TrEMBL record:
GO terms, biological process: membrane protein proteolysis
Record's protein name: PA domain-containing protein
Pfam families: PA, Peptidase_A22B
GO (cellular component) term, any one: lysosomal membrane
Gene3D superfamilies membership: 3.50.30.30
Superkingdom per UniProt: Eukaryota
Entry's family note: Belongs to the peptidase A22B family.
GO molecular function: aspartic endopeptidase activity, intramembrane cleaving
PANTHER family, alphabetized: SIGNAL PEPTIDE PEPTIDASE (PTHR12174), SIGNAL PEPTIDE PEPTIDASE-LIKE 3 (PTHR12174:SF90)
Bilayer-spanning residue ranges: 12-33, 190-208, 244-261, 267-290, 302-330, 336-356, 363-386, 418-442, 454-477, 483-501
Protein's organism: Lactuca virosa
Length: 533
């Protein structure tokens, strides 16, 4: 063993020298190559400013080729270039005339992307814009191993953008463009605000019973006064290990159906279901808050046809919630619609977390591990089988109609030159939220404080996991991330580690709410509003 160590240690200096010489030679090669491009260069998103007859029009988005020349990050100082359709228009063979500094506009197909770029450059073009045959913009790559002498920008735009350019050119207009590749800010304020919304929602939902707790002590009790509305206990759905597995399988099936049959009518169906659930959730949240502040507000009753007897307050709140949802649907494509969508979404999440509960950590482990695998598979692994990332494609919605699925929280990227929204799916709050709600009930049953309980540490773990999600999003150049990849270890992992350290893991694993229901009934209200055991 000692002789092996000596030989290994003597190899390290040799390897360092070899690697040093290798990188030195590589640097000399790169310097000699100058502006040579490569098929292995990074493709970047680009923006195209357009002028028609001197009037600036709408910007187009595109994607550069991997072998494209470097594109400026800003449009400042970049000269406008006139656009022409070459002859032949597919740019696959030698051009009949020199382009002399014009940007060539060519359709996708008939030959390789690299051939188009070489032909356009040989014809004197200052750039090449390839029009996709669909609304999707694909990455233009090549397979040559040696360096390429491509010194013009090569980008692809969608079919819709290409049709608009061709229409302007065929009408005799002068079309000019400037291609640039702006970078997104290092820190996205939209992600920070969305992080605050998500963390605030999961904490409020977990503590909702305490937030909306009705205070009886300040309210006089009249035993002879009629009760218009009796207190009703909320119906609770307690999940089992089987229902957890079935739920994730059902979610996967629905996701695939949505991916395969993505259309405006399918998204409209989701919008209807979302509004029904959100109205119910918003109604229950507002009524619970009003009752917690003013118990007498919910006493006056009214008979509603087909719905029976309800309180005036509940009816008015329901009408308000329905009007709010209708207004959001009507204005859902406006720039401010994200506010209404987030309000409805937060109310729906809070309501669901009051309705569904986990009985113990065993069920939580099954549910969150299945959700963990579900998120990773449909984001990272699904392209192997479906060509695209199913989760990311579904989140993008129907490109032809501009409709997007409503089951996400959104916040606009105000300071990002690309615009758009930072989004977070409801499942990234609901799945960890079920676990956090369980820890609140467990801490109460065991009379734990904030410090020696579980909820506080899992809430911190959730906040850290969401930060890691956005860090992964940044490190992977904006590629969609499966948030549960980070959230499950930071929440479920934290709970299991704390349980092991404290010697309570077995109790957490086999804990059953039904065995502790008597704790909630130990204290009963006396007519005077005092509690007695």
């Amino acid at each position: 063993m000692k002789r092996h160590n000596r030989n290994t240690s003597s190899i390290f200096p040799t390897l360092i020298v070899i690697y040093g010489m290798f990188f030195f030679i590589q640097s000399l090669t790169a310097s000699a190559a100058g502006s040579l491009t490569s098929c292995d260069d990074i493709s970047v998103p680009v923006m195209i400013k357009i002028w028609v007859n001197g009037v600036e029009g709408q910007k187009l988005e595109g994607q550069s080729a991997t072998f494209s020349a470097k594109i400026a990050e800003t449009a400042d100082g970049v000269a406008k270039q006139s656009v022409v359709v070459p002859n032949p228009s597919n740019c696959c063979s030698n051009l009949s005339s020199q382009l002399n500094g014009y940007t060539a506009l060519a359709p996708r197909g008939d030959c390789d992307y690299l051939v188009k770029a070489k032909v356009a450059q040989a014809g004197g073009a200052a750039g090449l814009v390839v029009i996709s045959d669909t609304q999707d913009i694909v990455e233009m790559s090549c397979s040559e191993k040696s360096g390429l002498d491509i010194n013009i920008p090569v980008v692809m735009i969608s079919k819709l953008g290409g049709d608009a350019l061709n229409k302007s050119l065929s009408g005799g207009g002068k079309v000019e463009v400037v291609v640039y590749a702006p970078e997104s800010p290092l820190i996205d304020p939209a992600a920070a605000f969305l992080w605050l919304i998500a963390v605030g929602t999961i904490v409020c939902a977990s503590l909702w019973s305490d937030i909306t707790k009705i205070n009886h002590t300040n309210e006089p009790y009249n035993q002879l006064s009629p009760k218009v509305e009796e207190e009703e206990e909320n119906e609770i759905i307690e999940m089992s290990t089987m229902s957890a597995v079935v739920f994730v399988i059902t979610a996967s099936t629905f996701l695939v159906l949505l991916y395969l049959f993505m259309s405006s009518w399918f998204i409209w169906l989701l919008i209807v279901f979302f509004c029904i659930g959100a109205v119910e959730g918003m109604h229950s949240c507002i009524v619970a808050l009003l009752k917690s502040k003013c118990r007498s507000c919910g006493q006056k009753a009214v008979n509603v046809p087909f719905f029976g007897t309800t309180t005036v307050m509940s009816l008015l709140v329901l009408l308000f919630c329905m009007a709010f949802a209708v207004f959001w649907v009507w204005t859902r494509k406006e720039s401010y619609s994200w506010v209404g969508q987030d309000i409805l979404g937060v109310c729906l999440i809070i309501a669901v977390l009051q309705l569904a509960q986990l009985p113990n950590i065993k069920v939580a482990t099954v549910l969150l591990c299945c959700a963990f695998a579900y998120d990773i598979f449909w984001v990272f692994i699904s392209p192997i089988f479906f060509h695209d990332s199913v989760m990311i494609s579904v989140a993008a919605g129907d490109s032809s109609s501009g409709e997007t699925i409503p089951m996400v929280l959104r916040f606009p990227r105000v300071f990002d030159p690309w615009g758009g929204y930072s989004i977070l799916g409801f499942g990234d709050i609901l799945f960890p939220g079920l676990l956090l709600s369980f820890t609140v009930r467990f801490d109460k049953a065991k009379k734990k404080t904030w410090h020696d309980g579980y909820f506080l540490w899992l809430a911190i773990g959730y906040a850290c996991g969401l930060l890691l999600t956005y860090l992964g999003l940044y490190l992977m150049n904006g590629h969609g991330q499966p948030a549960l990849l980070y959230l499950v270890p930071c929440t479920l992992g934290t709970c299991i580690i704390l349980g092991l350290v404290r010697g309570e893991l077995k109790e957490l694993w086999n804990y059953n709410n039904n065995n502790n229901n008597n704790n909630a009934n130990e204290y009963k209200q006396t007519p005077g509003g005092e509690e007695q055991a």
